[in-house]
Amino acid sequence: MGHATTDAVTDTGASGHILSFANEVYDADDKNKIGTDQGICFRTVPGKAWECFWTLSLDKGQLTVEGPFYDSGDSVLAITGGTGEFAGALGEMALSARGTKGDAYNFVYRIK
Fold first, then answer.
1. What is this structure's pTM?
2. Phi and psi angles of residue 15, each rounded to the nearest 5 degrees, phi first
3. Which domain range does residue 90 map to?
4. What's the gap between Cα 107 and its chain centre?
5. What is the CATH number of the domain that holds 66?
6. In 10 A of CB 54, how many CB atoms?
7. Environment class of residue 98 by beta-carbon count within 10 Å: exposed (0-12), middle (13-18) or buried (19+)?
8. Domain count across the chain
9. 50: part of which helix (H) or strand (E)?
């Protein structure tokens, strides 16, 4: 579970927005910090979608993902690689909002 504590949207004018973040990540019970994530998203469809790239850093290595993040509804992003125990990782990450405030998310990594 990730906590969106550093999210910042940059208005780049008529062409769109940039969302950047660097947050702590917690276990499924939301009790223990297990790592961090950081990344960037570019607004692709105003009011509907972003295209995102980010890295999840854990004790055993890192996982990188990229894909769409929707303003409403769940998203599935591609796992594009990793380091350490995750070297060569591929698969997908399911992303869903936790609650309605937009400040917490569930991430489910399915590594092949």
1. 0.81
2. -80, -15
3. 2-111
4. 8
5. 2.40.480.10
6. 21
7. middle
8. 1
9. strand 49-58
